[in-house]
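Issue 218. Parser rejects a valid record. Input:
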Amino acid sequence: MPRSFGHISLLILIGTLLLLPSCSTEKDAALNVGYHNMTARYNGYFNARVIMEESLESYRAAANEDYTHILPVDLYPTKEDIPMIQEKYETALEKCEKVIFRHSMPSSATKNKDEENCRWIDDNWFVIGVIHYIRQDYLKAEEVLKFVQETHLYIDQERVHEARIWLAKTYIAMGNFPEAKRYLSFVESDMQAAESNTGKNKVKLSQREKERQKKQDKKDKKNGVKKKAPFPKELKDDYELTMAEFWIAQKDYKKAIEHLEKAILLVKKKKRKARYEFVLAQLYQITGNGDQAAYYFNRVVHSNAKYDMRFQAQINKALNATSGGETIRKELTKMLKDPKNEEFKDQIYYALAEMEFKAGNKEQAIQYYSLSAFYSVKNDRQKGISYMKLGDIYFNDLDYLKAQKYYDSCVQVLPEEYEGYDQVKGKADGLSDLVFHYETYVYEDSVQHIAAMSESEREKYLEKTLKQIKEDEKRRKEEEQRRLVDQQNRLKNSNTTAGSGSKWYFYNQKVSSNGFNEFRALWGQRVLEDNWRRSNKTSYSSDDPDNQDNPDSVAVVTETVDSLTVDVLRNSLPLTQSALDSSNNRLINSLYMLGIIYKEQLHEENEAIKYFTRITEHNIDHPKVLPAYYQLYLLFKKKGSSKAEEYKSKILNDYGDSEIAMILKDPEYLVKKQEKDKEDLNEYSQTLEDYRYHRYQNVIAKCNEIIATDSANEFINKYYLLKAFSIGKTQPGNSNAIRSPLEELYKSSPDSEEGLEAKMYLSKLDKGQPIVQSDSTNVNNQVQSPYIFDDKLEHYFIVVFPISEGNSNATKIKIANFNKEFFRSKQLTITDTQLDPNTQLLVIRVFPDLDQANNYKMAFNSTTARPTLGQIPTKFESFLINSKNFAKLFELKDLKAYQDFYKEKYQQ
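Output the parser choked on:
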């Protein structure tokens, strides 16, 4: 038959079927069944599948995946991205539901309800289940997929097996691994049974057995007994992939590898196979099999996977390879020269750094890690990891000062969800005190050294230093300008390689240039250095961090270099006795803290001894000298050195009345003191409780007792205050009686916290004011909010647009474009209305209830909407409001009150 004639015949047949007046689902005539089969297949199943697959393909092509974690075996939209596909999937869902309602055979009026004559109904049910799975509505997916595989109507359909696989996927997503395993075991059993009846494994029957089987089949058909459809071999790969998902979810990567390897042999589509090979390589990587990981990463490199996956495969191949190092280095170096890798240079340099570090070339590794951090323009994770590696290198080399700088830079940029973030932050925080005290020590030592020079010598030194500072600043600005130009060029190159017209920030030359200029306007010209955000940083005349121990370096006060003069430098020096005393105080305190940090935190006892010894060598009368002697005694005693006794004798002879001397004389001294402190605390707590319960006479009596008999009590100052308060409660008019304990307290301890409080209370008494209020209390009735929470009411989405921002038309157009692109079927409107002289509201309406309004809010604030909305979600405040509260808001015109209500009710 000619092809054109065949098409005409098909059209005539379709037209005839559509015009048939008797295409009822209650009749099982051939024409009826044919019509309903064709309609159910194409109007529902086929069209819905096309919508789903096109939507998924589009999502997967645009998705930016996190290659630092094991990729999902198959990529589906995240919770944040689901609102973006919601409308298309609603359309697909509606098509399938209509087909099931209109074309099921049997229908509600059919006599034989045990037979489904329309063989595409189960397929439509299956698609509905998959849609719910993709939208992460797992309870609904479970309900539908269980129906498909359990109902008697579809027992003879192959779709039952696929429904079981997807049901297992649903349970894996829900974390219900026992149920997932149960359904996968059903699939495995059916698959093995099907294999045993095909090819070489097929069981041969005798003639008599064949005749008996034939008779049984006729009998079953007559009685309406359905046979289970054999497992289709094209579903084997789905089973193996789901088993891999099952074991990955439970972190049993070795078992996952077994099933993924089988699946890869079965998959035909090259792009799908490349993804599975990438995941397999990651599994080998995490299980420590670098050679196999490199092998599969290499397969992905030479596949037709999307570019970012092939790039990541090349990087990971380099990180896992145990041989061919020189060849891989050449490949990576070649990649650096490729313009389309401009935005990936940070990862290429990181791979080179890792290779050099493994090869023992630490200095070269440090250089590459630094370049990786430098070229991380938008990849904060990579920048943070590179900083962390540098920090680890210096930490292991016991160079804690440099290590802290890199750890601190790391936590500034590394995402908090990074697996090792807390450990890095702990190191940065732990070492920050070390850096602070070291820099303080170096600074004070430097300025004291300069202050000790003769006047003529000092003036020459300051003039020379000022000249050096200005030359260094000029050189720094030139270097900074070069770096800024380099960075702008990298952004332009990213734009060039990515193609023109892209919406993404770094691919849009105009937008990225504007952002670059905004950064310059806000932060000025900044050198590429650690902690560039910090405004209060101590600068040294030397740019080399290795020279910070140089006593001839001079610290520069926080002045711009252009305004620096010799007088300014001179004024920062401790040239008077009081300034020198303050400098010595800071120096000794920092030396002591350095010793404690090295001893207690870093367990570097020799370094601790060095700093404690420097305290004793300064020959300065300071409160930290005695504790330094005691720390040296403890450290040398631990070493078993005879120096311990020398320091003990020094303490007993020169500081015999001190608490430390008491400890050395009586090993039980601290135990006794702790017992005494505990008793004092209990007594004070009881006295405080008496005060709270208005037992003021008891309080006054106890205060008098402690003040008279126990002046060493650590709560003595608080007892003075309690006595004054209690007198103020019992004798509010007796100013002299209230004043007496306050004056005693201020006289004995004027600089203490309580002494300063006493001075303040005495001032109040001088003005005739009471120091405590009477015991009568005023109960403030809590004001009830005028707003109501009702999630069933219609809701609006509000964007707060300050009048000071000017015309809102540009913002309205962007929001309208967003609505058209993502919520076309909702027929949303956007209006603007003025709430008060300073505030305009952009109102997007109307949503039937809170759930649908929330879907819109999630989409509005998602990263996927950023190309359309720009900075609107971050620049302007937005919230949801129901119709009744909207009217109340305009009645009261109190935006702050509603925002408080919104935070309490909507953002819990």
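Fixed in the parser; the record now loads. The beta strands are 539-540, 555-556, 795-802, 829-836, 839-847, 878-882.
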